[in-house]
């Protein structure tokens, strides 16, 4: 099974690139973030024409998350995260596909430490850990933009970001709590030492200069860890016409052993 997570930074602007991704990789499940769609403007027809059924949580101009499943309807879809601080921001959607629970999540940015938005980010991560703990006994993949660099190796220059959001200890402690709730970081399971950047600022040529952050991830529950076969970034989708500032992160799970 192949799963992809991608913060598209506006599905309307990036729909041709999303359709390109679907054709290039034929993923079984796609988790999208920052779709920025009004509920009645989500491009379900175009995605269904490409062979994908959709479940989405759309909040308008900001945020928005979606799940796409190839050839099947995402079952038992549930929008929203119990205990999240802002229920109208459309940051969490989950459904069952292929016998596993899959989640698309877009964690709040947090803006700056010691602000209300940062406090809300920590509360969101606390709520996510509780929900993951409730689901992680079974096959589970939680994927998306976590807006946290788990360690210094996930940052192009730790000194340049010292004290800024994404790298503070409270954020990193809460990301660790997501793992402690019963998941593993699929990319790090296979690539313990590679930077694995998934986001680059549009400005000042950061992408071409290698100035990135690893803030997107697939978290998989213990029953799925032995099935992790591959996990990596397709950098080509950070290039070309109208790229997102994120690259898609692909996860391949081997068939379940009999």
Task: Report on this structure.
The protein is of the alpha+beta class and 258 residues long. The chain has one domain (2-253): Endonuclease/exonuclease/phosphatase (Deoxyribonuclease I, Chain A). Helix content is 24%, strand content 28%. The strands form 3 sheets. A 6-stranded mixed β-sheet has the order 3-4-2-1-14-13. A hairpin with a 2-residue loop joins strand 6 and strand 7. The chain is globular. The model has no long low-confidence stretch (mean pLDDT 96).
Question: Any descriptors?
Answer:
single chain; 258 residues; alpha+beta; Deoxyribonuclease I, Chain A; six-stranded mixed beta sheet; 6 helices; 24% helix
Q: How would a textbook summarize the main sheet? A: 6 strands, mixed
CATH superfamily (homologous) name: Endonuclease/exonuclease/phosphatase
For the secondary structure, the number of strands is: 14
Q: Element order, helices and strands?
A: EHEHEEEEEHEHHEHEEEEE
CATH overall fold name: Deoxyribonuclease I, Chain A
Determine Rg (CA atoms, Å). 17 Å
Tally of separate helices: 6
Shape: globular
Question: Summary?
Answer:
The protein is of the alpha+beta class. It has six helices and 14 strands. The chain has helices at residues 11-25, 44-49, 116-135, 158-161, 169-180, 186-190; strands at residues 2-7, 29-33, 52-57, 65-70, 75-79, 92-97, 100-106, 140-145, 183-185, 199-200, 212-213, 216-221, 228-233, 249-253.
């Amino acid at each position: 099974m192949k799963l992809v997570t991608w913060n598209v930074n506006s599905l309307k602007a990036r729909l041709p690139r999303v359709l390109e991704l679907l054709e290039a990789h034929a993923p079984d499940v796609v988790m999208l973030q920052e779709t920025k769609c009004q509920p009645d403007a989500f491009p379900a027809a175009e995605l269904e024409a490409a062979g994908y059924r959709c479940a989405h949580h759309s909040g308008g101009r900001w945020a928005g998350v979606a799940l796409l499943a190839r050839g099947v309807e995402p079952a038992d879809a549930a929008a929203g995260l119990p205990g999240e601080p802002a229920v109208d921001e459309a940051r969490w959607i989950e459904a069952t596909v292929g016998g596993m629970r899959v989640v698309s999540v877009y964690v709040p940015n947090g803006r700056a430490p010691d602000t209300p938005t940062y406090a809300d980010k920590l509360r969101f991560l606390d709520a996510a850990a509780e929900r993951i703990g409730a689901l992680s006994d079974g096959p589970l993949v939680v994927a998306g933009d976590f807006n946290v660099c788990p360690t210094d190796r996930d940052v192009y220059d730790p000194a340049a970001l010292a004290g800024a959001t994404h790298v503070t200890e409270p954020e990193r402690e809460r990301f660790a709590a997501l793992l402690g709730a019963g998941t593993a970081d699929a990319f790090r399971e296979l690539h313990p030492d590679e930077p694995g950047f998934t986001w680059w600022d549009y400005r000042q040529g950061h992408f071409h200069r290698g100035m990135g952050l690893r803030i997107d991830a697939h978290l998989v529950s213990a029953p799925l860890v032995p099935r992790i076969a591959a996990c990596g970034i397709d950098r080509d989708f950070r290039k070309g016409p109208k790229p997102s500032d994120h690259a898609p992160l692909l996860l391949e799970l081997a068939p379940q052993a009999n």
